[in-house]
Amino acid sequence: MIGVTISRWTMSYFAAALASLVAALVLMASGYGFPSDPIRAPETLVVVHLVAIGWLSLLMCGALFQFVPVLVAYPIHSNALPLPALVCLAGGLAALILGFRQLAAPVGPEIPYLALAAVSLVAGFALVLWNLGRTLWAARPLPLPARFVVVGLAGIAATAGFGAIFALVLGGATANPHLVEAAAAGLPIHAVAGIGGWLTFTAMGVSYRLLAMFMLAPEHDRAGTGAVFYLGAASLAVVVLGGVAAICAGRTLTIVLSVAAVLGLAALGLYGRDMIHLYRVRRRRAIELNSRMAGVALANLAAAVALTLALLGAGAFDRHVGAVVFLAAFGWLSGLGLAKLYKIVAFLTWLESYGPVLGKAATPRVQDLVVERRAARWFLLYFVAVAGGTVALLADAPLAFRGLAGVMATATSGIVVELLRIRRLADVAVALRLPDGVHRPLLLVSRARQA
Amino acid sequence: MTEAAAATLAERVEDALRLVIDPEIGYNIVDLGLVYDVAVEADGAARITMTTTTRGCPATDMLRAGVRIRAQGVAGVRDVAIELTYDPPWTPRMMSAEAKAFLGVADAEDD
């Protein structure tokens, strides 16, 4: 079906996501959480969830509400559900942060923040799953990139499920022995399903389509792409289903995680080969900043895999797992997210502002909304700081890490300013900026108008 | 209207469509090869067959609306029918030489 529309609340998700990212980076720069605090300390949990839920998950949800319909050429099931989902997710995140602070320093009224967080976050992700799930179900048979999203959605279901158990047990809302056992052993499942399944696998699927679109690369399904999907899905199934079975049987997760790691690394290897192929066969020789920066993010993913293998080989993975997660979260996922935001915000702003007057007046191009040379400096600064931050973590240099986190916060703020300028049409030539019938878009909400 | 006059009118409609750009690629849809056919009947009814660079493109409805507005604005055109098709799917090979040169798009064997 034709007629995919602009997602009204996607910009709101992006704004909340960016605010969370900047807040997390400022906290890291101020010495809050790892590495200044232990990796499992409540302070670290605040920062981790600010990044995982506040930044990456809200970014992913906002992007999926707009691009799942593009992936499957079918309209979104509901344009009304994203707002209550956002309220639940943001409220749940706030309660989660307050709950972690309560764990760190139990003062103030005894409000069951963690239990409230569990309820609110599960409700928020359930609304997201329902909306995207109904859209995907209605659009069957699904193209391969959309099937990656389906597995990613299963990943967030598992992540949120385990997260709710942790919150209820940590907050003292339940003492059920099975749930306590799951909370004690389930952290690797929660983390892998979230970072590997929900965030990475979904990003991989969407990247096949978006990078091909933006670089004019042929979208032929390669034999290896199917293998990426099946190996990755199998890896996540082993982690979640095998992990739950192991916990129920009272076994450790070592074998389950080892098998999943082999499958996952094979999937990532083939994915890397596909991405190199995509960049090589692109028709657009001079690619835009977003595609160049996505390439840097992909290189960071490769570096995270290489670092994992090197640390495993050296028997030092457990000691440096924080550096690996940092590189994956900020070099790969956040780098890709910021790069694609730079394109998506410009594209959606163009559609909202100039789409309705297409054919009635001369309109600028999407590229006329951005100034790549200026933004490129912020992206460069960001990626250099991420590389430095990874080295600082490996070298156990927390002060240097804090300084580099400050640089990341500065670079991210610079990118945010560029996004605000796009939204305000500030860089469009005056002669083309506001033809009759065009109004500056609102910052946080899209107004879809009929032509 | 004679066949020759209809053909001339079709050319004028195609020229008019050059004001409509694909926002992502930033070039007019005619030279991008997104307009597969423009035909005008003797009674002035125009039939335009077009596509988008990718199925499910969020700009699809806006592109169709822009095409309709531009075609309807051509003197002599009485009615406009737009058919959106993905058969064949668009590839960069369908661009005009000028568009390829402007956008730095390379030809390849496996399109």
List keywords for this structure.
heterodimer, A: 451 residues, mainly alpha, 74% helix, B: 111 residues, alpha+beta, GMP Synthetase, Chain A, domain 3, two-stranded antiparallel ribbon
Structure description:
The complex is a heterodimer of chains A (451) and B (111). Chain A is mostly helical and 451 residues long. Chain A is built from 14 helices and no strands. The radius of gyration of chain A is 22 Å and the shape is globular. With 111 residues, chain B is an alpha+beta fold. Helices cover 31% and strands 20% of the residues of chain B. Chain B contains three helices and five strands; from the N terminus they run H-E-E-E-E-H-E-H. Chain B has a three-stranded mixed β-sheet with strand order 3-4-5. Chain B has a two-stranded antiparallel sheet with strand order 1-2. Chain B starts with a helix and ends in an 8-residue tail after the last helix. The model of chain B has no long low-confidence stretch (mean pLDDT 92). Classes of the chains: A mainly alpha (451), B alpha+beta (111). The A-B interface holds A 2-6, 66, 69-74, 209, 213-214, 216, 218-220, 281, 283-286, 347-348, 350-351, 354-356, 358-360, 362-363, 365-368, 451 and B 19-21, 23-26, 53-63, 65-70, 84, 91-92, 103-108, 110-111.
Arrangement of strands in the largest sheet of chain B: 3-4-5
Main sheet specs of chain B: 3 strands, mixed
Fourth-level CATH superfamily of chain B? Fe-S cluster assembly (FSCA)
Q: Which band does the percent of strand residues of chain A land in?
A: under 5%
Q: Supply the number of helical segments of chain A.
A: 14
Element-level helix/strand string of chain B = HEEEEHEH
Mean pLDDT of chain A: 94
Task: Give the beta-strand count of chain A.
Answer: 0
Beta-strand fraction estimate of chain B: 15-25%
Instruction: Write down the overall geometry of chain B.
Output: globular
Structural class of chain A: mainly alpha
Number of discrete helical segments of chain B: 3
Largest interface: A-B, 41 and 35 residues
Question: What is the N-to-C succession of helices and strands of chain A?
Answer: HHHHHHHHHHHHHH
Oligomer: heterodimer
Query: Which range best describes the helical content of chain A: under 10%, 10-25%, 25-40%, 40-55%, 55-70% or over 70%?
Result: over 70%
For the record, give the distance between the C-alpha atoms at the N and C termini of chain A, rounded to a whole number.
19 Å
